[in-house]
Specification:
With 252 residues, this protein is α/β, with parallel strands linked by helices. It has ten helices and seven strands. Helices cover 47% and strands 15% of the residues. The longest helix has 21 residues.
Length: 252
């Protein structure tokens, strides 16, 4: 292939959107996937308008059939798949006493098993071609910290870190790398939600105790995702990089 390719889940908004655009600017053909059809179509259209190559496909990562079909479509359209960005996720505030099995299962199904589904599908072709990179989005609220009234989210994101490690060990000898990114506070629709996260005012307060003096932007995370998928990170696998503006080392 003369052109590398990437599949991005949750590509319609936030970190997923920024990642799709970053990869397109780096010359990748992009298959943007999401359950948000209008937003996903929008990012694909934006990439094409800027001269890049991108298509959109609806993908609910809780469906094994849809995950398998999305990866198959990327391989068919692009002649293979060089990178996977497993970004799709949800975060709902629920007190432990109100955390039902169904609510727990829903978050784990999207945030952890959803990563597994697309990684399993993508790994098959990557192993056959003896090359590829998987990058999964974890969170500091599962890798370093816990998150009040979000134990299901913290558990799922901690699971992503373990999943990355397991994938890295199993796939390394076949030329496939797997890494994660653990963002800190990033200005996305999720963190701007007062109901489920910090909200706008909470994010502004958070900026005061982040050493670099600001909350992250989706592009701050996307550039690290792109690095981990690139040949510049060819000797890195099984790692989860914290991208939090120094919060985890500087907050007291």
């Amino acid at each position: 292939m003369t052109e590398k390719s990437v599949l991005v889940t949750g590509a319609g908004i936030g970190i997923g959107r920024a990642s799709a655009i970053a990869f397109a600017r780096a010359g990748y053909a992009v298959l943007a996937t999401d359950v948000l059809d209008e937003a996903g179509e929008g990012v694909a259209s934006e990439i094409r308008a800027a001269g890049g190559r991108a298509e959109f496909r609806h993908l609910d990562v809780t469906s094994t059939e849809e995950a398998d079909a999305a990866v198959a479509a990327a391989e068919s359209r692009f002649g293979g798949l060089d990178a996977l960005v497993a970004n799709a996720g949800i975060a709902h505030r629920v007190k432990l006493a109100e955390l039902t099995d169904a609510k727990w299962d829903r978050t784990l199904d999207v945030d952890l098993k959803g990563v597994f589904r697309v990684a399993r599908a993508a790994a098959a072709g990557m192993r056959g071609r003896r090359g590829g990179a998987i990058v999964a989005i974890a969170s500091t609220m599962g890798f370093i910290y816990g998150w009040n009234e979000h134990v299901h989210y913290s558990a799922a994101k901690a699971g992503v870190v373990g999943l990355v490690r397991g994938l890295a060990v199993e796939l390394a000898r076949e030329g496939v790398r797997a890494n994660g990114v653990a963002p800190g506070y990033v200005r996305t629709a999720q963190t701007l939600s007062v109901e489920n996260s910090l909200g706008a005012e909470g994010l502004e307060r958070a900026a005061g105790y982040i050493p670099v003096g600001r909350v992250g932007a989706p592009e701050d995370i996307a550039d690290v995702v792109l690095f981990l998928a690139s040949d510049a990170a060819r000797y890195i696998t099984g790692q989860t990089l914290v991208v939090d503006g120094g919060l985890s080392v500087g907050y007291c």
